[in-house]
Structures are given as C-alpha cells and as structure tokens.
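All the exercises in this workshop are built on plain-text protein records. A record pairs a protein's sequence with a compact description of its fold. The structure tokens are whole numbers drawn from a learned vocabulary of backbone shapes. Once this layout is familiar, the rest of the handout is easier to follow. An example says more than a description, so a record of this kind follows.
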Amino acid sequence: QVQLVESGGGLVEAGGSLRLSCAASRSIFNSNVKGWYRQAPGKQRELVATITSGGITNYADSVKGRFTISRDNAENTVYLQMNSLQPEDTGVYYCYLRVLFSSSVYWGQGTQVTVSS
C-alpha cells in the first residue's frame, strides 16, 4: 500500500503562482506514472498533468505552457508548478500514482486551489 500526501494548495489571485507537492510513503521500483488531476465544483475529475518514471510528461491542453510537472525519484515526490493561474484553475487537486503492468492505482486526499479574479 502507498499513501500519497499533497501540500501547497491555497488561495491566490489571478496571474499568480502556486507549487503543489505530493510525497509518497515509499519508493515504487516498478515503472509507474505519477500525476495530478483536479475537480472543480459540479464537474468531473479531469487530468491536469502526468509524468512517467522515465520522465515523459503529458499535459491537458488547458494548462500547457503554464503548468510544469516534475518528479524527484529519490524523494518519492512529484511536483506541479502552476503559473499564470486563472479562476478556471480553481478546484481540488489530487495526486495520482499508477503502477504500470498492474492494477495498482493510488490517490491522495486532495488539496484545494482557489484562484480569485
């Protein structure tokens, strides 16, 4: 079992920046994908960005050029640097871990990001 703990959410004005962190409770030695999803009020959870254990990244079109995902495998941590935040970026951001070639998927508890206009 793996626990994921997010931090770094908060309230920011439009145009501002936040950096989210997600620490895993232990190392994952198998190939895996870590990432971030978000859920706005009244909407479905949607992908924001993912990064493989090999460093391949994928972004939602709505955040390309503004958000950057990275990972520190030694620290079992994945980060999401969010710049030029807009009110539509408001939501609960969830950390995600999927172990490839297995059915193991883990979610964090979520961290609130609120962008005021």
